[in-house]
Amino acid sequence: MDIRNIAEVPSFITADGSEIRELLAHRNSGIRNQSLAEARLPPGAATTPHHHPRTEEIYYILEGTARMRIGEEERTVRPGDAIAIPPGQVHQIRNTGATVLKFLCCCAPGYEHEDTVLVE
């Protein structure tokens, strides 16, 4: 049985500049076709605009507020919001709040640096 607690998972910086803790993925569990991570951005920070040629993502906002941009559309997101990001869509999230933005990032297939194409 694979169970990971966020307090015990080391963080790393993704190619887009966010700090993540990979909870479940092929690197640390029996999961093979997706990954689940918690991402964090400090106040005022943003990911580098990017896209994933193969991977579709879902962001789920846990704490904080942000502006989410996918393609030319931009909207405010807050706790409880789930955001669908299709493969190939340029996207960026910017923390607009006064506290650390925390969100879950689900990727299928699982996250890989090599599948991240920076736009700026």
Structural description of this entry:
The structure is a single chain. The protein is 0% helix and 46% strand. The termini are far apart. The chain has one domain: Jelly Rolls (Sandwich). It has strands at residues 11-13, 19-24, 35-41, 50-51, 56-63, 66-70, 73-77, 82-85, 91-95, 101-108, 117-118. With 120 residues, it is mainly β. The protein has no helices and 11 strands.
Topology:
Elements: E1 11-13, E2 19-24, E3 35-41, E4 50-51, E5 56-63, E6 66-70, E7 73-77, E8 82-85, E9 91-95, E10 101-108, E11 117-118
Distance between the termini: 41 Å
Strand content: over 45%
Shape: globular
Number of helices: 0
- Kindly report the CATH topology: Jelly Rolls
How would you write the strand order of the largest sheet?
A: 1-2-3-10-5-8
The CATH architecture can be named as Sandwich
Q: How would you spell out the order of helices and strands?
A: EEEEEEEEEEE
Oligomer: single chain
Would you kindly provide a brief summary of this structure?
The protein has 120 residues and is mainly beta.
Could you list some keywords that capture this structure?
Jelly Rolls, three-stranded antiparallel sheet, 46% strand, globular
